[in-house]
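Long-time lurker. I teach an intro course on protein structure, and each term I like to show students one example going from raw sequence to a predicted 3D structure in token notation. This year I'd like something fresh instead of my usual example. Would anyone be willing to generate the tokens for the chain below so I can use it in lecture? Attribution to the forum is fine with me.
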Amino acid sequence: MVWRAFVPAPTWRMNYHTHPPMQQFALFSGYMESLPQYSLLLLLLLGAAQSSHSDQDRPNFVLIMVDDLGIGDLGCYGNTTLSTPNIDRLAQEGVRLTQHLVAAPLCTPSRAAFLTGRYPIRSGMVGLGRVGVYIFSATSGGLPGRETTFAKIAKQQGYDTALIGKWHLGLNCKSSDDHCHHPAAHGFGHFFGIPVTNLRDCQSGSGTVFFQLHRYIPYMALTAVAFTVAVLHRLGVVAVRGWLVLGMAAISGAMLAAFITTFPIFTCILMRDHRVVEQPYVSENLTQRMTLEAVDFLERSEGRPFLLYFSFIQVHTALYASPRFRKTSRHGIYGDAVHEVDWSVGQILQTLERLDLRRNTLVYLASDHGAHLEEVSSDGQVHRGWNGIYKGGKSTNWEGGIRVPGILSWPGTLPGGRQLDEPTSNMDVFPTVVRLSGAPLPQDRGIDGHDLMPLLQGSVERSSHEFLFHYCNAYLNAVRWHPKNSSAVWKAFYFTPNFSPENEMACFDTHTCYCMPPYVTHHDPPLLYDLSQDPAETTPLSPATEPDFHTILEVMGDAAERHQSSVEPVELQMSPGHLMWKPWLQPCCSTLSRLCRCLHDSTT
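-- Reply from a regular --
Happy to contribute to a lecture. Here you go:
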């Protein structure tokens, strides 16, 4: 559109015969003196017009992330035993992605990739050991400040930004209140949620994440003390006495038990912006409270562009549901929690419609990775979701661990009821949001995601992702190749997790799957699948069953080498030093003498 600003006609352009030359000169001089005022008026009118035009064109964003939700848990993806009408309606009104992939099969690295549009290896949000997520609130690791999130760019573009729910990307660096990794440091103007994750320790009676450690406390304490006493005796510091060993073992065991007992107090924290408001938090009605917080943010942002990242705490263990949703499903507390999540999505959609914002809001819904198949409660109840036909789950790069629901809806801009089978990534949200907000993509770093709009609107038919790389922590685990002008989707595994013989869906008794020996098996040549023919990854190909077996693997190997050569070394944020609990980083809502307790959020 061409905008025209109307200003008074220049008074010096008058008929020569009407005004004598000296009078014309005086009128011209008057015009020249008033020219700056006209120029200023012109600029203001143009600026207002452009600003109004820009705000009308730029959408709002509601980005919904459900924790640990399986692709098979939703009706729009084939579930017939759970009721998800609101999410199903969202899919009917928009585009449903059938090959939507996360950049990592665990919470922390997947969310880092989602926010930055970059593989987590690039930001250092990975590690070389067993642990690939943060389990303490007082750790020094987190999303580095040098990273740029879509929230930071949207805020620079004039958007109101908010994160409600789970963060799980760090909090502090050097002190308990420096908040160097806080959501506010990454562009979120408002935060109401938990800095870590919803662990089973956060709900009474649900057991502990240290369930293995809990069983071995006496043995660990005795071993540690025996070793210490032996060293001291060798140095001539103490004489070995049985009572001394047993006494020190008892003290060490008591200290370990006390740590596990107080772990929920120090870790299960609810924050509002920079303040701890509930410690430990009460989970029972937390989904309800966060939904009300989201609705309040939408109402307060009416008339201004906004970006809401609603990051559900559910359906991650420890599972919970508010009273109105308990026993509403055929799948126990897990199904009840899914029902409550669907209700919450409905509340957000209804609010957008009530505020007449629905047609100017891009809504995205996904999971951070596949369902957690190893999840069993402390009393033996199965608390796992369903990944449909796909093999494996959370913490594995089988399709069940990385293929997640992906729904985008923007009435009037995106077609309704469309199914898209091309490979897409949760990293694609970053460039999509950045460009729609009116900002250019950062040029000082590699961006691995691609703008989804051409694919969603049908102006292109092929995904921009010819290759995708699947990491297990810091290790390149698998490569995906969707050749140009081909319907094939090849996937090559360099190693795979070892499943226990009793249950082909579980990784030993470790509660999760690890990325290094003895928990994995390396393959030479790599395992090769054609997902277009075998999406469940049941039968690996061989030179006998695939004539181009070696050529395919060679192309994928070359792509992997090029990709890895583009990864610049950075500090790993999942190193042991960054993962360990550090008392001086511990956030508290009260003094340590009161054991960091506050029983309710007084501001809600």
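Some talking points for your students: The first helix runs from residue 21 to 57. The longest strand covers residues 520-530.
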